[in-house]
Amino acid sequence: MENFISPYDATVIQKLEAEDAILIGKTNMDEFAMGSSNENSYFGPTKNPYDLERVSGGSSGGSCVAVATDMSNAGIGSDTGGSIRQPASFCNVVGMKPTYGRVSRFGLIAFASSFDQIGPISKTVADAALLLEVISGHDERDSTSVPLPVPEFSKSFNRDVKGLKIGLPKEYFAEGLDEGIRRQLERTADVLRDGGVTIVEVSMPHTDYAIASYYILATAEASSNLARYDGARYGFRARGAKDLEEMYVSTRSQGFGEEVKRRIMLGTYVLSAGYYKAFYRKAQKVQTLITQDFRHAFEQCDCLLAPTSPTPAFKIGEKVDDPLAMYLSDIYTVSVNLAGLPAISIPCGNDSGKLPIGAQIIGKHFDEESVLRVANFVETNLT
Description:
Helix content: 25-40%
Radius of gyration: 20 Å
Largest sheet: 8 strands, mixed
Order of helices and strands: HEEHEHEEHHEHEHHHHEHHEEH
CATH class: Alpha Beta
Number of strands: 10
CATH architecture: Alpha-Beta Complex
Structural class: alpha+beta
Number of domains: 1
Strand content: 5-15%
Oligomer: single chain
Distance between the termini: 44 Å
CATH superfamily: Amidase signature (AS) domain
Shape: globular
């Protein structure tokens, strides 16, 4: 898409400009939002502002770094499996994924259309609430946009949390979670208890299947969505092709990076004859079970408190040759996208190496108000 200028603005951009937001530029990201470290960018990795040898997170790492380093007051990203929340955690900023359907996707470059959601990145919960209020709302140009009134997030977020019940999913605190992150999450839970919150343990029994399910469903949708980048109408076109088929093959081979090609091939495979039922349909059934896990958990509590990432920011190059290890960086975020829920990552301290840690607060469908309310209380009282 080098030098491509869109003939129209996305709905989110129109809404921001209507409120006099000043747009200062585009930020670096993993190619087509496919990555957890920003190392899949055509332009090279965005470095973590707290340690230049470490990743910023992905895919919206550039926006998070821009906010963290005061290049901008706020940023916009898209979150398909954690691409706002995970880099926000690594870069010590606030990143929110709204409920699927709360914010119009019209004008967003599609990766996995049933998971993609646009959301705010900011220094404070107050700014995230204001941004979310501006960009939310029904849009007839997006068939998945939900016709619900938009609450006044910028006013309702600043309330106490007394009387709320917050769940700790026991599967999110099992083996594999960094001990420094575990300690900071326990400290966050203590702060909420002091504010009058009741902490309860809940179970999400299908959590172990989330990564497998997500990387089947998301890649299948990516395979379909990225078929449009064929060199025929816009974007990169390989030169020297002898016929149309060679032009297609050469364009897609040269134009896409390795991770994007990996996901297109995986998605095409799981949709192919003989494998559709074995993989794609089974993944859809797991998605339903994960959604039910959340539904049962919310029968016991108002919100969930969880880690955003299993580790702090890792070193550049550490996981780039091990796709599975990279995918596991999103183990605590992809379930939220599979279920279409709202969630926010907020800074909750640092590990022993002074690297930022994020706490994730997950809410019920279209209950961003409770998510922001809890997040603001933690931000205000966690010292």
